[in-house]
Recover the amino acids of this structure.
């Protein structure tokens, strides 16, 4: 049964992360060079403090341009701080429901606030595909 499949079975265990002091253009470079559109932001202890997305990068560029300031800054200035998270034992049906209801592309997986992975919509589709292929 699909409900018994846990996030831990399909999450990315070591996702690319940023720190608050990461330069905005370094984040833009990462998004340009790799196939992901967002990444968790962690502190020195691995605790999740936010998410940085391509949209956050665009917001940072446009905000500074609009105010005729020098474009740039850090991830911490533009990241999204209010982040939905899940536990690694959450079943994938609950995650799929959260993706639909909250419009998210990815959700960080945490254990007592420490980032342990990330699950994306594509991961959930992979789980469904595996289930269908094996039945």
């Amino acid at each position: 049964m699909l409900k018994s499949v846990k996030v831990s079975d399909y999450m990315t265990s070591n996702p690319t992360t940023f720190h608050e002091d990461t330069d905005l253009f370094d984040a833009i470079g990462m998004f340009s060079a790799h196939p992901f559109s967002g990444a968790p932001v962690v502190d020195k202890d691995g605790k999740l403090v936010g998410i940085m997305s391509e949209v956050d990068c665009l917001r940072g560029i446009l905000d500074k341009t609009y105010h005729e300031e020098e474009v740039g800054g850090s991830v911490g200035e533009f990241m999204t701080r209010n982040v939905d998270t899940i536990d690694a034992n959450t079943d994938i049906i609950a995650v799929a429901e959260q993706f639909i209801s909250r419009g998210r592309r990815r959700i960080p997986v945490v254990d007592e606030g420490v980032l342990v992975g990330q699950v994306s919509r594509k991961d959930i589709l992979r789980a469904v595909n595996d289930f269908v292929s094996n039945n």
Summary: The chain has one domain: 2-133.
